[in-house]
Amino acid sequence: MIPKLKSIIQSKITSVGLPILALCWVSFFWGTTWIASKEGVKYMPALQLAAIRQFLGATLYLSYFLFKKAPWPKGKQWKTIIILSILNFVLSNGLSTWGVKYISSGLGAIIGALVPLWIVIISLFRGEKLVKLAIVGLIVGFGGVCVIFYEHLSDFLIFDFRFGIIISIISTLTWAFATLYTKKKAASFNPYFSLGIQMFISSIFLFAYLGATGSAVSLSTIPLISWFSIGYLVIFGSVLTFIAYIYALQHLPAEINSIYAYINPIIAVLLGAYIFGEPLSLAIAIGGIITLFGLYLVNKSFQDSKST
Prior knowledge:
Number of helices: 12
Oligomer: single chain
Largest sheet: none
Order of helices and strands: HHHHHHHHHHHH
Structural class: mainly alpha
Helix content: over 70%
Distance between the termini: 41 Å
Strand content: under 5%
């Protein structure tokens, strides 16, 4: 009886405990990657940091799957992977990394959480019918953003700040398109192997852009702190946390798994204030709460529509 009970407990821990731990890992460490990116781009071009990060992350992924002799993508799977590599990594990751060079890491993280709002807007333009809760969530989320930016109105006169905001918003838009494209294609190819290939392809695009524009700096001039930032982003941002995210996605209900999207910005804002002395004003706190509540309503509407 006791061995059987022990087996049941171990099974429960594996089926519920590990996915929850994976979700906690994602919720915390993806929030910290905004801080690492902010530190790294102080001393090198942001797109060069993104390119090196993605190349090193891809090397780890591909080395593992080559060692395991895993099958490569076939036919139309390549088209999906190439499109996702451009949307997810060249544009979304590349531009969000570039954005925090000009805006605070906390603000970048809050903007990065707006992906569900873009999905609602895109769905509206495509003529899809949406439940009222999604529309309410969109309005609430937009209102929260307005509160956040109220005290930054004068900053919009500064070109670098405007540029950082614009490319950060574009990065969330491309992630939203990638999300919708992934749902549409629903590729059956190994998601972990696909991530490695996407990272490798995107690093080629980014290195090509850096070479064509001559904007890269010599590797020997990159200070040690930036290499530490890159190493952190590779291990905790590109490898371990992505693995944990996909694992949680496969073992937890979507409404639970989406919790990370609300915690990441909080982690980034608090760490940004503590480490970099970034402003943590009442407007950011209230606006952030309102925005995250709007995102909650949007995500809830999506989950409710799936269950009906």
